Predict the structure.
Amino acid sequence: MAFFKKKKQSLSEDIVLPEHIGIIMDGNGRWAKKRRLPRSAGHNAGGKVFRTISRYCSDIGIKYLTVYAFSTENWKRPKEEIDALMKLFKDYLEEALRDFKDDSIIVRFIGDKTPFSDDLKALMIENEEGSKDRDGMVLNIAMNYGSRDEIVRAVKAVSADVKDGKINVDDIDEQLISDRLYTAGQPDPDLIIRPSGEYRISNFMLWQAAYTEFVIMNKLWPDFTTDDLDEAIKTFNNRNRRFGGV
Ligand code: IPE
Ligand code: IPE
Ligand code: MG
């Protein structure tokens, strides 16, 4: 996608890029409310920012980007908001299939696909299949994702393996659990960014975020820019990660 390549970048040469960034794309509803618009308008605006930021992360050389798009708890929202979100997901996934054929980004979905409509599920699978042999950034889109649900699934998978005699209880270690999460085989996130000013994790990557650096930003997601991403990466560079050591 040549026309996306020339992006301004305010990061200096000596900056260390996080290998894996997670983003809790929050604040769409408040952005719309401030403008007296329906919440769906906020989601539309947030969808555009998602496109810009995922492209930018790929351009600057981020290896893994995980975006939280829809949680297992978000089904509690009014039907018209859910319908608008499903329409947005469908539009994006159709666009990705149609327009991003020569892209290098590997698209993965983390979360339980079961409750989505058949056409949305098919689009998710088509996007995964069509991009799996690429060599660029891995883009995990968390849809109907909840980390507690993810851990419950891992526990069930481990229990089934024990029951079937494939493993012994003593074989269970941290790696074995990690290997049964949606993110199996991927590094843990180094940096998680939450725009919209909320200081909580909202069921996102509970296991994987054991030593992740958090950057909370007082910007609503539809207002988030590539400069804000640069800022978060700079903040990350000033952190002293100790992983329990000294
Ligand atoms: C995040 O924005 C998008 C989803 C959860 C799907 P919100 O819709 O949560 O926006 P706020 O937090 O209400 O402003
Ligand atoms: C987290 O945001 C989920 C996504 C951004 C998809 P929420 O808006 O659902 O989180 P809470 O309700 O403020 O904790
Ligand atoms: Mg929210």
User: Anything to note?
Assistant: Residues 39-60 form the longest helix (22 residues). Strands lie at 20-24, 64-71, 106-110, 138-145, 191-194, 213-216. The radius of gyration is 18 Å. The mean pLDDT is 96.
